[in-house]
Amino acid sequence: MNGNALRDLDGAAFAQAYGCSRFDATVLGNRFRYLLDHVSERLLACAFSPVLKDFYDFAATLTGPPHIGYPTPVVSKSQLAFTGTMTESIRNTIEEYGVERLGAGDVIIANDPYRTGTHVNDMLFIRPVFHDGRLCGFVNLKAHQLDMGGSVAGGFSAHKFSVYENGLVLSPRALMKGGSAVNESWTLIFDNARFGELLRLDMQTIIACLDLGESLLLDSIARYGEAAVLGAMRYVVDADAERMAEAIATLPDGCWQGAALVDCDAVDDSEEFPIRCTIRKHGSRIEVDLSGTARQARGAINGTYLDAKTTVGIALKYLLDPGGPFTSGCYRPIDILIPDGAILSALPPEGVVFAYGEPTNALLIAIFAALAVPLGTRAVGGDISAPNLHSAVGRRADGSPWVSIVAGGQHGPWGATDAGDADSYCSFYQVNGMDTPIEAHEAEIPVVFMRRDYVTDSPGPGTHRGGAAVCKDTYWLEPVDHHLFTLRFKQATGIGVNGGHDGTTGGVWLWPAAQPARIHGTGEGDFTQATGVAGRLDPASGAPRPNAPWVYFGRQRWHTEPFATLRHMTNSGGGWGDPLGRSPTKVLEDVRDGYISIDGALQDYGVVIEGDAECDPEGLTLDEAATRAARAARA
Amino acid sequence: MGRTLFSVDVGGTFTDVVMVRDGAIHVTKVPSNAAATHLPVIEGARRLGVQDAAVFNHASTKGLNAVLTRSLPKIGFVTTQGHRDMLDAGRCMRPMNNQTDARWHRPFGDAARPLVRRYLRRGIVERILSSGEVLIGLDEAQARAEFEILRRCGVTGLAICLINSFVNPVHEQRLLQLAAEVFGARFPVSASCQVGPRAKEYPRASTTVIDVMMKLIYGDYAQVLDSQLQAAGFAGQLNFADCTAALIPWRDAVSAPHRILFAGPAAGAAACRGLGEALGDGNLIGCDVGGTSTDVTVLVNGSPFVNDSFEIEHDLLVNTLSTEVASVGAGGGSIVSVTPSGDLRVGPHSAGATPGPACYGRGGTRPTVTDACLLMGILDPDGFADGQIRLDPEAAQRAFASLDCRMSQAERVRFSWKIALNNIAEEISRCALRHGLDTRDFSLMAFGAAGPMLLAGVLELVKARRLIVPPHPGLFSAIGLLSTDFVYANSRSQYLMLTPDTGAQVEAIFGALESQLRERLQVGSDGADVVIRRSFDGRLAGQSWETPFINVDADALAARGPAALIEEFHAEYARRNGTSFAQIPVQGVTWRVQLIVPTEKLSWRPLRSGSGAPAPVGHRTLRHLGPQQITAPVYPRAILGAGDRISGPALITEPLATTLIIPGQVAQIGAVGEIVITETP
Amino acid sequence: MHNFPRPTTPTVSAARTPVPGNCPECGAQALARYRVMSEGGWWQVTKCGQCLHSVSREPGPLLGAFVPLGAP
C-alpha cells in the first residue's frame, strides 16, 4: 500500500471510487457511529437485564449488503469481545438462512458459537434493511441473554462436557417475518430457556432498537442516497484498513513468538493448555499463526475461531492503534492461521464453548509478549488476564437459594506502559464493566467483605510499575458451596516489558470457621492457618511464591461452614522499563503509599529507604548515597 | 413591582451578573479572576448597584475547578480496615472511548492524580453488617493512633466513611468525637452518615471527601463574599445554588457544600423552565453552546431530568441531586483538524479561552468553528463580545489554509460548519432517545455565546418544532438563578422490598426524615408556604441500578399503602425509559424528603409591539451556506418589537450574541422578546 | 452437529503446504498454501513466507472446518 493513498484522492477520484463526496462520506461515517450510539442508548435505557446495563454485554453493528461483501463500517462502543465476531457472524447467518428469503421487517437470529462466536447466551439479532425493494444493509445487535437453557442456570460453568449440555443452539432462523412474530421461534426459546418472561421483554426491546437503527439508516439513505451510503460504508472500512496497515508498518520486519498458559481444565490437572503464537511481519502485512496451541479442553472453557480472530484484533488495537475505530477493515492487513480443534477453535460436540475468556485472555498475553520485543518502549505490560470465576451457593432459612458471583477475583491490575504506572482495579483488558458495590451485595447475600485492597510488593517492578494484585477476603455467615475455576495461576500473566519485570501470581485460600471475626493479614506469615485452594503456594507458609508447587483448585469440592473466610488474590500487572530507572523519589512515594515495602524497594529497585512507612509515612527518608551504591552494584 | 434581585454565575472566562430592578433586566460581564474569584463578583455588584437588592443568588465553578485542577487541600480519609482502596478503584469501569487504550488511567487513581494519597487513607478496625449489627467493635485505641498519624502529616480536614454506616452510624459518630479530641473541635470533618447516608460505599466515600474539601474551599470564600457584599451596601440574603440550581442560604450551603459544586448548567435548565413557563411551552431542549462544548438539557412538561449523583470526571462521583446535562465537545472554540485519511474533524479538542480561535489574534493557529463563522460572514469582525475582542479574518483564513488536506478553502470552511452542526444535532437526538423522546415534540432553546449563531442550522437536522433564542442568551444561565426556589433536602438509604405490609415502615422512614428537616430548619408543620415533597429511588428486583425520584403522594400512601408507590414507580420508569416491567417487584433503596420554600422569581415582562416588518440597518454577505454567496439583512435586536417577522437569510445582532436565520426559515419576535425561528413549510 | 473428535495430540498446528515457484514480489522460493482468517472470513491463500505477499486468495468455507449436518 502506498502511504496515504486515501488521503491523496482528489474530489473527482474520491467520487469515482466511492460514489459520494468526501464530505458526505465524513458526515455519513459520523452518522453511522451515532446510529449505533442511539441504538445502544435505547437498549441501555429500556432493557431489564443488569448484564446489559452493568457489563455492556452487547454490541451493535452496521453491516453493508452482500453485494459489497458485508463490510462492517462501525461497531458500538460496548462489548469488545463481540466486535470481531460480528462481521463474519452476520455473513454466516445470512448466507445460511438465504439472502433471497429476506424481506423488510424480518429479524434473523442465531446463537451457535461455531457459526457466530462467543457463547450460546449471546444471541445475534439481524435486521435486513430494504430501500426501494433493494437490500442495502443490516442493523445488528448481539446481546447476552440471561439464560439459554442447558444444564446450569445462566450457563457459567466449566462442567459442561458436550454441546448437548451447553444450552439451546439456534441455527439461523427468523424471529420476525415482515414485522410479525414467528411464533415457533419464540416458543422454541421459551420452552428451552429459563426466565422466559424477562427474555421476552428484553428481546422485544432489542427488536425495537433494530427498528430504530433501521429508520435512522433509511433517513440517511433518503437524505444522501443509497449510492452515497454504500460508498461511505466502503470508504470507512478502507480508511480503517489503511490506518491499521500504517500502524503495522511502524514495526520493524521480523518474526516473533509468544506464549501463555491455561493451567488446566475443570476435569483434572493432568493436562495444561499452552497458547502459542508466531507473528510474522513484513512491510504493512502481518500474520499471526496459532500453531502449537493446545487442543480443545474437556469442559466448557473453549473458544471458537471467531473469538481467536476478535482477540487478535483487540490485541493489535491495544498495541498499534489504541484510539482507532474497530471496523471489519482493520483485519485487511492481518492473516490469522488457526488450527482446527484447538482450545481457541473448538469444534462440536466435545469442544464445548462457554468460558471463552479463559483462552482468549491467554492469547492476548501471548500476543503482547510476542510483540513486546519489536515494540520496545511502546510495549504494554500484562494484566490480571483472568476472570477468576467464583460462585457461592447457599440456602436461606426459608429454603430459598441464593447465589453470589462477585466474591472471586474478577477485578485486578493492568500492566504498565510508557504513559506511566498502571491502575490496580480494572476488568481484564478485553472487557469493561461496572463493579458491584460491597454494601449492595451484602444487603442481599450473607457475606461480609473483610478486605478488598492492594497487596504490597506485588506490582511488577519497572520504571513504571504494574498495577497491584487485589486481595479480596469474604467472610461467610452461612454454609456455602463454592464453585470456582481459576485457570491462570501457574505463570505470571502480568508480563514485564521493555526491561520491566513480571508481576506476581495469585491464589485462593480458605480459613476455617472462626468467631469472633477478624481481618487476616497478607504477609508471608499470615497464611499458616489457611488451606491453600489454588495457586503457586509455599508448602510451609502457604503464602504465594513464584516457582512454588502449583495447587489445583479442582481436587475436591469446597464447602464451608458458617464464619469461614475465603481469600482471592489476583495476579499482578507487569512493569514497564528497567526498575533501576525508576526515580528514587517515586520509589519513596510508593513505599509511603504502601505499594512497595522498604525491603521491596531495595530488592526490586535498589533504593534504600529508612523509617516507618506505616506509622510515620512522612518521616521516611531516602538514603541517596546508599541508593547510588546499591544501584551501581546491580548495573 | 417586585424587589430587586441579583444573580451571578462565575464561569471560567467571565463572571456574568444579572440584576432585575423594577421588572427590568440589567446585565454585565466581568472577566473572571481564578486567583480571587470574589473580586469580579463584587465588581459586578458595584457596577449594577447592589444596595437595594433583596437577594444575591450565586453559582460558581470554583469548587469544580479546584477538583479538576487538583488545587485541593490535604485531607485524611478513614474507612473500615481493608477498604481504603475504594477511592482508587471507583466503580471499576473505564470510558467506552478508551476501551483499547492501555495508556488510559483512572483520572483520580493512584497512578494519576488521586484526591487523597494512599498513605492518608487509613483503615480503622471495626465492622458493621448490612443488618446494622456490629460484627467487630470499634477499636478506639487503634483509631486514635491513626488520627495521630494523620495529625502529624498535617492534614487540614478529615473525611470518614465506614462500610454500612448508612445502616448504623454508631462507629462514625464515635469517630467524630474522637476526631474532635485529637484535632480540635473546630477542625473540618465530614462523616458520611451526616453528608448523606446512602448505600454504595464508593460514591458515599467520594462524596464525603469532596464535602470536606469544599468546606475548606467554600467556607472562607462565602464568608469573605458576604462581608464584602455588605460593605458594598448589600443588606439582603446571599444564597448559593446547588447542582439543580435550587437555592440554599449560604450558611447552610457551606455546612454541606458538596451540593454546590457545580450549578451553572443546572441554572441554564432553570432559565429554560422559567422562560418556558412564560411562553406556555414546557417541552424544551436547552442547548448552551459555549467555547468548548455544548451542554444539552431536556425538559418535559417544564421539568428537567434530575439525577441522584453528579460525575465530576469519569467515575468521580458526588451523591447530590443534579440536573441531567449532556455535554458534547462542539462549541465555538472547537478545533477543526484533518484525520490521517484526509477527512475533516471538528472537536473534541478546543482552543478554549486562551489562545482561543485563530481570529482572536491571541496566538491560536488552528481553525475553529468561530473562525468558520467569521469567514462565513455570520460574525462581524468589529462587533464581537460587545466589541471587547476584534476578530481577524486574515488569521482565520490562514488557519484554514494550514490544514493539510485536498479541499478548497471554501470546502474547508463550509464542511467544518456543517460537521459542527451535525455533531450538535446528533447529541441532541441522543439526549432525546435516551429517554425515549422524539425531538419533533420539542422546542430548542439556544443560548450561550455561540448558540444563537449555530442552532438555526441544527433545527433543520433534528426536526424540532422550533428554535427559541431567549433575551440575553449570553447570560441566560445567570438569569436561571432568579427562577428557582429554596430547597432543603434530607435522604437516607434503606433496602426495602415493597409489599403490602411495608406501609408502616415506609411511613416511619419518611416521618423521621421530615422531622429531622423541620427540626434543623425550625419550621413548624403549619408553615403555609412550605411544600413538602417525598420521593424514593427504587429498582426492579434483580436490577443493580435505581430509578431516582419516584414521587410519593403522602395521601395516596396513607390511603393505599405501598401499592401507590409501586404504581408510581412503574409510571416513572416508563416515563424515563419508554418501557415498563409492571409484573416485577419493586424495591425501595433511597428515601428522600424535600422541603421547598417558594421565593420571588423573575417574571418576564412583555416587550412592546413592533411594526411587524422591521427595517434592517445594513446588510452582510454570507458565504458558504450554500453554493452561492447571499446577502443577509442585519437587524439589531434592540429595535425589534413583539410580532416582528423576519425571513431568512438574516442576522439579528446584540452586544453579546448574533442570531443567524438561514434561508427557508422565518423568525418571529415573541411576547417577551424571544426570537422564535421555524422552518418555512 | 457433525462429530469432530478431540485431537489426540496435546497441541495442534495449522497446515501449510509448500508450493513450488518464486514469489513474484520478492523472488523468494517460499510459497505455501494454507487457510487463514482475515477480513471477510476464511480464505485459502498462497503466500510468500518471506514478504507475506499473497499470490492468490480464494474464499474458504464459510464456517471453516465446521459443517452443520443440516446445512444446504
What can you tell me about this protein's structure?
With 635 residues, chain A is an alpha+beta fold. Helices cover 31% and strands 20% of the residues of chain A. In chain A, α8 (196-224) packs across α9. The longest helix of chain A is centred in the N-terminal third of the chain and has 29 residues, at 196-224. The model of chain A has no long low-confidence stretch (mean pLDDT 94). Chain B has 681 residues and is α+β, with helices and mostly antiparallel strands. Chain B contains 17 helices and 35 strands. In chain B, β17 (310-311) and β18 (317-318) form a beta hairpin. In chain B, α10 (369-376) packs across α12 (409-434). By secondary structure, chain C is mainly beta. Helix content of chain C is 0%, strand content 36%. Chain C has no helices and five strands. Chain C has a four-stranded antiparallel sheet, with no helix packed on it. Chain C is globular. Chain C starts with 10 loop residues before the first strand and ends in a 13-residue tail after the last strand. The chains are: A alpha+beta (635), B alpha+beta (681), C mainly beta (72). At the A-B interface, α2, α3, α8, α9 and α10 of A face α3, α4 and α12 of B.
